[in-house]
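User: Some background: our group keeps a shared notebook of sequences we're curious about, and every so often someone picks one and asks for a predicted structure to add to the entry. Today it's my turn. The entry only has the sequence so far, pasted here. Could you supply the structure so I can complete it?
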Amino acid sequence: MDAIPVVEYTHPNALMQFTNADWVPQTMVSQCVQDGEFRIMLQYPFMFRDTRINYLASNVPASSFETDRKSFLGDNEYGTFQSPLGLRAPELRNVNSLRADNISALLHHLGTLQPGEARRLITQLGQAHNLEEARPGIENFRRAAAVENELAKMKAFWDEYLSAFQVETPDPS
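Assistant: Of course. Here's the predicted structure to add to the notebook entry:
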C-alpha cells in the first residue's frame, strides 16, 4: 500500500491568483527540504520567500516527491487527479519547481498490510513565516499523541460552543 498526500496551492493573495491567473503561477516556488529521515515540502511566491511559506509534512519518511503539477498529472496536464499519470512510475521525480503551477506530493510506501492491521500516516499542512518557525510544530505533530490531544481540545471547544444553541423540531434529522 502506498499513500500519496497531494496539495495544490494558491497564492496567499487569492484575488491576485484570480485576476492574474497567467502571471501568478510564474511567481510560485516549490521545493523539498530534507529533515533528517523526513521530507518537508515548502511553497511560496518568490516575493514572500523570507516572510511566508506554506508547508506539507508527514510523520512517515517519504521515498520521493513531486512539485510540478504538469508532470504529476501527465499528458501535458490532460491527466487527472483521479488517475495522475505521474503515479504510474514506481517513484515520483524528485524535482523542485522554481516556477510554474506547482503542487506538493509525497510518496509513502506503507508496505503490505495484513488483515486487521492498520498503519497511521499523519499529514500536516500549514503556513509560517519560515521553516525555522514551523519546525517545532512539525516535529510535535509527527507524534500521534499530540494530534489526538489537539483533536480532543478542538472537539471540547466546539461541544461547549455549540451547546448554547439547542433546537427541538418534529423531524429528528
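Suggested note for the entry: The radius of gyration is 19 Å. The mean pLDDT is 92.
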